[in-house]
């Protein structure tokens, strides 16, 4: 049950919650939609841009510098926008640059380009809606609407100025303006709709993740509560009942053993893996690694020595030994400020191990420790007794030494 709770906690920790730094992961659908829009815009704009470029090259004479400048002002930002859309980077900057440069070129068009006939379609007309899609990629929705609704009328006014507002220009320009106006509004509407759908999907996903995280937390808390209740009922309560009913010496010995086991299991609930976990053999060197890790977590500085032969001991023994040593280290840090902290792990091959934790603090009187203080009685003595190990504490003015041992019977 404890392992299941840990699995839930680990899975929960890997789920990004809404509003955290995992924004890129949370907006997966929105980013994918932006990439699709940029790709579609690149394909359509490249087609219309090629058509406009061919018409532009054939429409002006050599040495016509103003028209060449207009052509460069329009097509250089357009080429940059196409490259950005293909690469998927700097799309907003490149598209915004083209949207602005195109409007400037369109405003300057009557001054730079000589007027043509009413039936002649200027090359800049092919890019009116390309400018609208550029605004759709670069600007917020209000500016998109402004570009879609205003740009066709600017184009129409430019054409009428070139045609001196003649009747023939009114007719052809009205068709061009109405066509580009309808198409531009449709483009903006489609872009807004697709983005809204993507944002809705991401929002629903965020709420689902938050709901699952809350449910996982509740499930882990409930499993922990059930495990603790079962522990209290099966071990602690049974030990209390046995102690209350103990009349003979044998019954009292059994009650003491049950109480020791109950205290050991209760103390082990603070560990990431309970005593009932895997009993796979653990090397003595691994115990030293865990002791160094405990020192690091507790912010303590100590000398750690590894002596004796290398061997393997049962996993449950290793866990109890490390947890008991961790409690001893914590006591040395809390009460002796970690002065002279020294840890020696002596291996006896596969036959056992002895771990000694010593400090040079002021020491304490073991007999004055109340029975309700579980830091030593449960976390050290009872824990080691639970795995058939030994624990001994010697304390005086010169310091304290906690010796933990286990032998293979």
UniProtKB/TrEMBL annotation:
Query: What terms describe the molecular function in GO for this protein?
Result: kinase activity
List the transmembrane segments. 36-56, 68-87, 94-112, 124-157, 169-194
- List the SUPFAM superfamilies: ATPase domain of HSP90 chaperone/DNA topoisomerase II/histidine kinase
Q: Which InterPro entries match?
A: HATPase_C_sf
Q: Which UniProt keywords apply?
A: Kinase, Membrane, Transferase, Transmembrane, Transmembrane helix
Q: What is this protein called?
A: Signal transduction histidine kinase
């Amino acid at each position: 049950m404890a392992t299941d709770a840990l699995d839930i906690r680990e899975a929960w920790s890997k789920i990004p919650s809404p509003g955290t730094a995992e924004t890129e992961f949370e907006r997966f659908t929105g980013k994918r939609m932006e990439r699709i829009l940029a790709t579609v815009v690149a394909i359509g704009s490249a087609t219309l841009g090629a058509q406009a470029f061919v018409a532009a090259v054939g429409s002006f004479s050599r040495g016509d510098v103003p028209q060449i400048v207009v052509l460069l002002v329009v097509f250089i930002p357009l080429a940059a926008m196409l490259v950005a859309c293909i690469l998927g980077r700097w799309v907003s900057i490149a598209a915004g640059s083209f949207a602005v440069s195109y409007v400037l070129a369109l405003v300057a068009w009557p001054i730079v380009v000589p007027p043509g006939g009413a039936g002649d379609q200027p090359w800049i007309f092919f890019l009116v809606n390309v400018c609208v899609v550029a605004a759709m990629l670069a600007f917020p929705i209000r500016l998109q609407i402004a570009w879609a609704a205003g740009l066709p009328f600017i184009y129409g006014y430019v054409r009428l100025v070139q045609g001196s507002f003649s009747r023939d220009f009114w007719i052809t320009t009205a068709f061009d303006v109405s066509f580009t106006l309808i198409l531009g509004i449709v483009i903006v509407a489609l872009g807004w709709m697709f983005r809204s759908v993507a944002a809705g999907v991401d929002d629903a996903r965020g709420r689902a993740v938050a709901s699952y995280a809350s449910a996982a937390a509740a499930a882990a808390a409930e499993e922990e509560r059930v495990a603790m209740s079962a522990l209290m009922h099966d071990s602690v309560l049974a030990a209390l009942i046995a102690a209350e009913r103990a009349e003979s010496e044998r019954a009292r010995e059994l009650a003491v053993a049950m109480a020791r086991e109950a205290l050991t299991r209760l103390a082990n609930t603070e560990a990431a893996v309970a005593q009932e976990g895997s009993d796979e053999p653990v090397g003595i060197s691994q115990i030293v690694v865990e002791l160094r890790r405990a020192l690091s977590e507790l912010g303590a500085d100590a000398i750690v020595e590894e002596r004796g032969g290398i061997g393997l001991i049962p996993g449950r023994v290793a866990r109890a030994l490390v947890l008991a040593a961790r409690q001893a280290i914590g006591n040395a840090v809390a009460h002796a400020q970690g002065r002279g902290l020294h840890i020696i792990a002596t291996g006896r091959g596969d036959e056992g191990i002895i771990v000694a934790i010593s400090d040079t603090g002021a020491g304490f009187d073991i007999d004055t420790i109340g029975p309700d203080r579980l830091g030593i009685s449960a976390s050290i003595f009872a824990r080691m007794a639970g795995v058939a190990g030994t624990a001994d504490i010697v304390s005086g003015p010169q310091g304290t030494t906690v010796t933990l041992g286990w032998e293979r019977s």
